[in-house]
Amino acid sequence: MKIVMTGGGSGGHFTPLLAVAREIRRIADEEKIVSLTILYIADQPFDPEALRMDDIQFIKISSGKMRRYASLWNIVDLFKTCFALLKAFWILYREFPDVVFSKGGFVSFPILAAARFYGIPVIIHESDSVPGRVNAWAAKFADRIAISFPETLQYFPKEKTAYLGNPIRSRILGGNENEGLALFALESHVPVILVLGGSQGAQSINTVFLQIVGELIETCQVIHQTGKNNYTDVLKQASVLLEKSPHRSRYRLFPFLTEDQLRNASHLARVIVSRAGAGAIFEIAAWGIPSILIPLPEAAADHQRHNAYMYARNGACSVIEESNLTPTVLLNETRKILSDDERRNRMSAAAQKFARIDAAEKIAREVILLGLHKQSYYGNKRP
């Protein structure tokens, strides 16, 4: 069986695809599917080491982006998209997969168009509460549609759409207190705050958080993922700001957290400060941790804001708009949650109720079923 996965090159698309790919391999082993090839087609590999470790082949394809405003780059990207379409038609003709699984994004458009032309089964997954352009288009011919938020059902044909949540990696679940304390060199019985800015980091969150970290570490410990591009600047600023603090060892700074680090950091955390990408929300929900979400205002179609407020309606988080994000506001909200055990318990219960930790498995099984149906239809021959 040959499966193509495609989606934008950000962590919000890559990690769910990786989670599904791992479940596909696990199920294939259980069901004795001997031959299995998984291809990831995108504009960048995002995490080449993860692809290598999970035996996923990467094929590069760069597609243009149609902006929602007038720009000369739209003309340039039109030519890029045409070239990407030609390349996608050749790749799918050469590989002819049994099924295509797409997370959306402009890079997936050429692959989906080629799959439609060749009659290859397609399953799409929409992470956000409001669908992106490509997924809204692909829904017209996709065989199956999976969604993360129940409210998203209104945008898709109900007869082929299922509310499954966002796929998360099973390896970030669990954790151990002693292992976590040793891994991060933290003190026991001192509350831990986990700060996540998404796969690319969040400069505005980093900037504001640095202004309050000195006060926070008087009573708390902090694990802060800055994003790879922001790490050096944040490290320099933090070194100056905390130079004379007797508690500076309570502030642990990382450009990026590995799966092992995430698993243990989440086990220790009492509250999480994060962007509001769907991937982040569903990982936080799976951990059952109260959170403060700060939506990215520049996100396409304002989807992070929609995501955050849909999650907040369940009582699992509080939301701070970036326009309202000040050191005082963030410090007060963090302290309110940390000091209120009853509120934290309610938020934790709401998060766990919202979580869908089996999303990756359910999607993987559907991908395999579609692929097997395709093989049966064509007598396991490539047309």
Walk me through what this model shows:
The mean pLDDT is 92. This protein is an alpha/beta fold and 383 residues long. It is built from 15 helices and 13 strands. Helix 3 crosses helix 4 and helix 6 (177-184) crosses helix 10. The strands form 2 sheets. The protein has a 7-stranded parallel beta sheet with strand order 3-2-1-4-5-6-7, sandwiched between helices. It has a 6-stranded parallel beta sheet with strand order 10-9-8-11-12-13, with helices on both faces. The chain starts with a strand and ends in a 6-residue tail after the last helix. Helix content is 45%, strand content 15%. The protein folds into 2 domains: 2-168 and 358-377, 3-Layer(aba) Sandwich (Rossmann fold); 171-354, Glycogen Phosphorylase B (Rossmann fold), CATH 3.40.50.
Secondary structure topology:
Elements: E1 2-6, H1 11-30, E2 37-42, H2 48-53, E3 57-60, H3 73-95, E4 99-102, H4 109-118, E5 122-126, H5 133-138, E6 144-147, E7 161-163, H6 177-184, E8 192-196, H7 203-210, H8 213-216, E9 221-225, H9 231-241, E10 251-254, H10 259-268, E11 269-274, H11 278-287, E12 291-293, H12 303-312, E13 317-319, H13 327-339, H14 341-354, H15 359-377
Helix pairs in contact: 1-15, 3-4, 6-10, 11-14
Domain Glycosyltransferase family 28 N-terminal: 3-147
GO biological process, one term: peptidoglycan biosynthetic process
Function: Cell wall formation. Catalyzes the transfer of a GlcNAc subunit on undecaprenyl-pyrophosphoryl-MurNAc-pentapeptide (lipid intermediate I) to form undecaprenyl-pyrophosphoryl-MurNAc-(pentapeptide)GlcNAc (lipid intermediate II).
